[in-house]
């Protein structure tokens, strides 16, 4: 993923509209690219922070954004686990079916 793709995904990330696969790619890039992290911070401030401030509330930009990123990473990790588990389950099912068919034929 490059910076241009990441920049286009920022609004989708902030509105929780990324697929797990895209979110994984997005997080990997943002966590390694200072420019994209800065752009994410700016867009987060504009999109989320301005509405909070208009309500007269205060917020900690870094803390809130880090919490959002942490929750997204947890979601991606759960998705990876379930994806890997489903792959293993599928392989076990195929092998089991092959064994059963072999036993039936013999």
Describe the protein's architecture and organization.
By secondary structure, the chain is an all-alpha fold. It is 84% helix and 0% strand. It has a domain at 3-76. It contains 4 helices and no strands. The longest helix is centred in the last third of the chain and has 45 residues, at 61-105. The mean pLDDT is 89.
Averaged pLDDT, please? 89
- The biggest beta sheet, please? none
Query: What is the distance, rounded to the nearest whole angstrom, between the alpha carbons of the first and last residues?
Result: 51 Å
Assembly status: single chain
Q: Give the count of helical stretches.
A: 4
Short description:
Helices cover 84% and strands 0% of the residues. It is mainly α and 106 residues long.
């Amino acid at each position: 993923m490059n910076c241009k793709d990441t920049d286009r995904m920022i609004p989708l990330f902030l509105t929780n509209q990324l697929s797990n696969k895209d979110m994984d790619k997005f997080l990997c890039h943002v966590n390694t690219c200072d420019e994209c992290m800065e752009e994410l911070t700016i867009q987060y401030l504009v999109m989320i922070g301005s509405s909070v401030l208009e309500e007269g509330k205060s917020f900690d930009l870094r803390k809130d954004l880090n919490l959002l990123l942490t929750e997204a990473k947890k979601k991606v990790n759960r998705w990876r686990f379930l994806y890997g588990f489903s792959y293993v389950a599928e392989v076990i099912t195929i092998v089991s079916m092959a064994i059963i068919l072999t036993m039936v034929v013999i």
